Amino acid sequence: MLKFYFHPSPNPMKVALMLEELQTPFELIAVDTFRGEQHRREFREINPNAKVPAITDDGVTVFDSHAVLLHLAAKHERFLPTSAAERAQALSWLMFVATGLSPFSGQAVHFLHHAPTPLPYARNRYLKEVERHYRVLDERLATSKYLAGDTYSVADIALWGWANFAGYILGEAGLSAYPNVKRVVDEISVRPAAARAQALKNKLTLKAEFDEETRRALFPQNEEMTA
Predict the structure, then answer these.
(1) Which of 132, 160, 179, 223 keeps 20 to 30 A from 170, CA to CA?
(2) Residues in domain GST N-terminal (predicted)?
(3) In this model, does residue 227 exceed pLDDT 70?
(4) Taking the model in full, what pTM does it have?
(5) CATH assignment, 2-78+195-218
(6) What is the Rg, in whole angstroms, of the alpha carbon atoms belonging to the chain?
């Protein structure tokens, strides 16, 4: 059975949504990143980068959320459009999320909420880049039902992961400035698969407190700076 190494944060939630859309059986394995379990030797043998998500699937190990999404889409022949034009769009927008929205969102969260010292330049830099990426996405979705065209695809599944957490970066307004992105995210969020993905965290007992142990686990480079 497929093993899914999981913590309920934005990147693993993309894979959770994909697995629930596929309705393929999987074993859920908690990796409590707040306690530093991602740094354990046995997990680093699965993902040398010490991050979730990762899967093992019929003896095949895949890490990085977007690699996992592509692996599952190809294996099950779902959520990748069959027409060449739409498939090209799906892959292009998937990579836009993978190399743009996701890392800039992660850095925005760090500098807005977790940096030990407020750094106005970094906060402005990453927040403005997140906003710019959402504008690009919003313009696309103003003229297209989904990112790939008329077909719900792996690109939309990837978008949902971080966009569903947008309020943590953008504040109470959330996605209100990006109505077309909000339309797609809201549509995905009411799908049964999304409800099942959200419910996965209720099956696990994970640390919730963000304390010094958590800071060391998530940002070990900071310890090197003060050593």
Answers:
(1) 223
(2) 1-80
(3) no
(4) 0.96
(5) 3.40.30.10
(6) 18
pLDDT in tens, 87-109: 999 999 999 999 999 999 999 99
- The angle formed by the CA atoms of residues 135, 139 and 140, to the nearest 5 degrees, is 120
pLDDT of residue 151: 95
**H or E, element range at 27:** strand 26-30
What is the C-alpha separation between 135 and 26, in angstroms, rounded?
A: 36
Q: 84-191 has which CATH code?
A: 1.20.1050.10
Question: How many CA atoms lie within 13 Å of 28's alpha carbon, on the beta-carbon side?
Answer: 20
Domain with CATH 3.40.30.10 in the chain: 2-78+195-218
**3-state DSSP of 89-145:** HHHHHHHHHHHHHHHHHHHHHHHHHHCCCCCHHHHHHHHHHHHHHHHHHHHHHHHCC
Domain(s) of CATH 1.20.1050.10: residues in the chain: 84-191
